[in-house]
Design a protein that fits this description.
InterPro entries: DUF222. The protein is α+β, with helices and mostly antiparallel strands and 239 residues long. Helix content is 50%, strand content 14%.
Amino acid sequence: MAQVACALTIGERAAAALLGESHALATSLPAALDALQTGAIGWQHARTVVDETAGLTPAAVSALEAHFFGPDAGRGAAPGELVPARFRRKLRAWRERHHPESLEERHAKSVADRRVEFSPDRDGMAWLSLYLPGDTALAVWNKSTALARGLQGPREPRNLSQLGADIAAELLLGSANQDVGDVPSPRADVLVTVPVLSFLGITDEPAEIDGLGPVPPVLPSRAPGPGTSAHPARLPACC
C-alpha cells in the first residue's frame, strides 16, 4: 500500500481505497470493468458501481450489471452519459428495489453499528468520522454548514470547509460558545419525499431524503434531533 501511495503521490488512505476498488472491479464486476476499459464509463462511474454493489449477493451483482451494462439494458441514457451523482442515484434506487433484504431490516442492523472512528493521517492531521443514521448525519452536516456560512465575512480568513471543521470540533469539545460568537444557531432542515402509498401503509416503497437517498419509510416519522425539522413531501408512488 505504501508503495502504491508513493508511486501515485497520494495518501495511504486514498491508496487503500484505490486498491480495494480495483480488486472489486477485477474480481466481481466484469461488465463494469469492461465498460471502463472501453471508455464507456469513467473511473468515478466505476467507483460508484463498486460502492453500490458492496454487500450484495453475487446473483444480485450480476443482475445489477445486466440491468445497466448488459445488451438488454433498459431505456434511457447510458451510464457513461450520466454525471456520476445522477448515476449513483439510479444505481442506489435499483439496489434498494431489488435487494433481497428489506431496507428496514438492513437499516436496523446498521443503526446498531453506529460509532465514532479516529484515523491518524500525515502532517500532524487526523480524520474523525461519525457513522450515524442518515437523517441525523445530514441534520448535523446542514447545521454545521449553516453556522459556518453565518461566520463568513470580509474579515473572516477561513474558507467554508475550514469553518465547518472548526465549528464541529468546537461543538464536540464544548468550546463553541467562546468562538462561534453571536451567530444564531439555525434549525437543521431535512427534506423528505414519502410516496403516498407508503405513507398510507399500503406498500413499503422507500422514502427519500434529499441529499442522502432512499431510507426506510418509518425513518421520516421521527424527529432527527433537537433543533432539527423534517419536511415530508408526499408524492405519488410512481414519482
